[in-house]
Amino acid sequence: MPLSTIFDPAQSDWTSPFAPEGRSDDGWNEMPTILDILPWQIPGVLPKRQWVYATSPKVLKKRWRRFIKGGRSDRSEWMKETTDRSISKIVRPIDGLPLVEGPLSGEIGMGLEPVAVTFRALDEIWLLPDLRLIDRPSPGLWSTADTEQVYFAEKHNDALTNGPGITAALAPPDMDFFNGRGGRIFPLWRDASASIPNLAPGILELLGMDSTPSADEFFCYLIAVLSHPGYVDRFSEQLRTPGARVPVTKSQEVFMKAVELGATVLSAWCLGRQPAWLSKMHQTPVSGTPPRLRVGSSKSTSLPAVVTYDATSEKLLIGSIEVEGVSEWIWNYQVSGWEVLPKWISRRTASTPRDGSVLDQIMPDSWGEQETKSLLQILRSLWILEQVSHQQDEILNDVMNSDLLLLDEMRSAGVLDVPEWAKSKPAPKGGLLP
Nearest 5°: phi and psi at 404? Predict the structure, then answer.
């Protein structure tokens, strides 16, 4: 039997991953990759110790106090020392994170205020921003972090399955942010003030539209076209080869429809906290009623022991908290296998970790108003994504039926010859990189 009947042909380009060659339907291989468009990409944060993450600042402060009470041997054990981080190591500062002095072995201070990070899709938690505790802080994340910054994430090293082609976050993401198994991060801006876009120079002008789009419009276009299950469904065969490709329309009418819809989608990914540039954009209105607390439902103070969901009644019960209007689409929403809502709830209701140090054992012991507020926000974001998903399917169809910007044209115009500065981390405003 010929080998060609057993194995799929691999990609011929020597720079491509060793993976099956995607089908060429819809001109897939002629479309640019995300990296062709957003040339600066970086990894997310990798602490290499889970106890520096928590769902509340209160828990992190408790863990820090316990760490400080420990002796040298205790600190060394709890630290889970690595080549890059140990209790005796002195680290150099990076721009955007607080300055810490001296090694952890002699630390007696109150500790730093926790900062928000995005652990997984739509799951913001807190991090102890002490560089001595973070093996790989990914300096570029922090040097450009601000309320105006937004991050896209792509799963470039494994095939996409169900869910969106890309995700987005407002707070700096974890290394495994996309679906718990790697990925890469694209900051949308190369500076904290959102004035220098992370875009291949010349790409906006190459679209040839009567009115050249702005960078923020292009970002909203990308999220509208790529960030929905319909994109992965349509290109499921092609996406067997890791890495999303972007159908970029040259039709101004189709483009602007996508921009308006994408602004709504991006707002959902930002969990309702919009950067100023996004809040100024016209967004597609969403009608209907989002998930809501049942009248009289307890706000609870104890840690919920039971979580149940009923698809027929569309009710979610978390302890004594009852939420109505949670559709099966919302409950089952995944990002390439990552169950977004169940995982979010589990992280906030688990009383003890499966393993870990003494510090890992310090866990939340209650569910308060903030947890309920955050629950309603993630439910609202998922509800918005559900309401606009069909419109995203339609936009993608319109895009694929329009004239597209393809690699040959980008190559001829020199847009693929991205200058080194556009691919590299911006120079720090001060301090040294580790």
Answer: -110, 150
Considering the entire predicted model, what is its pTM? 0.91
CB-CB neighbours of 429 under 10 Å? 11
C-alpha dist (Å) from residue 340 to 40, 170, 296, 407: 27, 17, 27, 34
Q: What are the two backbone dihedrals, phi and then psi, of residue 193, each rounded to the nearest 5 degrees?
A: -90, 5
CA distance 145 to 140: 8
Express each pLDDT in 123-157 by its tens digit.
999 999 999 999 999 999 999 999 999 999 999 88
Q: How many CB atoms lie within 10 A of CB 139?
A: 22
The DSSP H or E segment spanning 220 is helix 215-226
pLDDT in tens, 279-289: 999 999 999 99
188-243 pLDDT, tens digit each = 999 988 999 999 999 999 999 999 999 999 999 999 999 999 999 999 999 999 99
Task: Report the residue count for the chain.
Answer: 434
- Report phi then psi at 154, rounded to 5: -130, 145
Which residues make Cβ contacts (< 8 Å) with residue 61, sequence separation at least 6?
A: 111, 114
pLDDT of residue 432: 35
Q: Which residues of 299-338 are buried (b: 16+ CB within 10 A; e: fewer)?
A: ebeebbeeeebeeeebbbbbbebbbebbbeebbebbbbeb
Question: Which residues are paired to 301 by β-bridges?
Answer: none
Residue 150's nearest CA partner among 284, 258, 272, 274 is 274
